[in-house]
Amino acid sequence: MIFVNGTPVDTAAQPTIRDVLVELEIDPETAGIAVAVDAEVARRGVWPTRTLHDGAQVEIVQAVQGG
Amino acid sequence: MTAPPQANERAPSRPLQIAGRTLRSRLLLGTGGFTRMETLGEAIAASETELVTVAMRRVDPAAKGSLLDVIAARGVEVLPNTAGCFTARDAVLTAQLAREALHTDWVKLEVIGDERTLLPDAPELLVAAEQLVDDGFVVLPYTNDDPVLARRLEDVGCAAVMPLGSPIGSGQGIANPANLTLIVEAAGVPVILDAGVGTASDAALAIELGCDAVLCASAISRATDPVAMAHAIRHAVLAGVLARGAGRIERRTHARASSPVAGMPEYAR
After folding, report:
1. Using the beta-carbon criterion (under 8 Å), do B68 and A31 form an inter-chain contact?
2. Chain A residues near residue B53 by CB distance under 8 angstroms
3. Which domain holds residue A22?
4. From the candidates B26, B108, B234, B244, which is the catalytic residue?
5. What is the pLDDT of residues B96-145, one digit of tens each?
6. What is the pLDDT of residue B12?
7. Interface predicted TM-score (ipTM) of this complex, two decimals
8. Residue B29's closest chain A neighbor by CA?
9. pLDDT value of position A30
10. Residue A35, domain member (yes or no)
11. pTM, 2 dp
12. Which of the residues B100, B193, B218 would you substitute to probe the A interface, choosing the one with the greatest number of A C-beta atoms within 10 Å?
């Protein structure tokens, strides 16, 4: 199990970041999103290959309205 | 030691430059608080801003993000902020995520110290600013109206300082013009008034006091007619620039007649 934006998500063993995005119906090609794994930026280039360990804390963020 | 420049010497005869980038508009617009995307787009146009702030939040798969499209359609650039961060660590990571998501190394750095007032946490702010500068960011810190903190932020390499007029969204205007003047006098980087603007006159005053630019969010987005207020504040900023260049009269304790004393007729009693 990993945590995505604070929510536990059951995944296949050692999914890649890209796998998780697809699983959550977030198009990995979407412009304007970024991913942190365990409080470090995971750059877009590593999404297809970087695997997530059990308990990984993933944050997927985008720009929203704000001052 | 040379005397600090007087406000008039800082009169903006040239366009605003931040970190080598020229901005023709001295108004930055926050995108928060607009209830409709269409209104945001129209307010961007009416404000004639070139730079609009956005926040970074968790992706909502249900919401189709048109915000960046609206901003791009108006031909303006995004300035991500770190709003909502209470520690240097969170602010640094948020800035790094914004850089990754939005392909900009500019950041409006906010590190908040108190939920009720949303006032900056000075020590955390300084730590975050230094780390982000070291990481190659162009850092524009939202800061207290504290001349010493502003100087420290400049010393660690911030590209501008963004003192508050009063608390975010409060619309109280410029609570401490004396401190703002001290910040302006000492600053070697642009000073952008951030937070507290309630209406057009507050923006004009900020520029008259020597600020190089003004950032408005709630004053525009939460006005009864946001597009009209965007228009008004754009003109207020221009008025402030012109007035500062023109040079205001000295304040006097007593009156000074503008009509001649000589030649006064003596009427029959």
Report:
1. yes
2. 66-67
3. 2-62
4. B108
5. 999 999 999 999 999 999 999 999 999 999 999 999 999 999 999 999 99
6. 60
7. 0.94
8. A67
9. 86
10. yes
11. 0.90
12. B100
pLDDT recorded at residue B65:
60
For residue A49, what is the domain's CATH number? 3.10.20.30
- Domain-embedded: residue A67: no
Query: How many structural domains are present in chain A?
Result: 1
Residue B250 has pLDDT above 60, yes or no: yes
A49: pLDDT strictly greater than 90: yes
pLDDT digits (tens, 9 = 90+) for A18-34: 999 998 888 888 889 99
Q: What is the residue-wise DSSP string for chain B?
A: -PPPPPGGGG---S-EEETTEEES--EEEE-TT-S-HHHHHHHHHHHT-SEEEEEEEE--TTS---HHHHHHHTT-EEEEB-TT--SHHHHHHHHHHHHHHH---EEEE--B--TTT--B-HHHHHHHHHHHHHTT-EEEEEE-S-HHHHHHHHHTT-S-BEEBSSSTT-----S-HHHHHHHHHH-SS-BEEES---SHHHHHHHHHTT-SEEEESHHHHTSSSHHHHHHHHHHHHHHHHHHHHH-PPPP-SS---SS-STT------
With respect to residue A23, please indicate whether it lies within any of the assigned structural domains: yes
Residues of B in contact with A9 (CB under 8 A): none
In a domain, A16, yes or no: yes
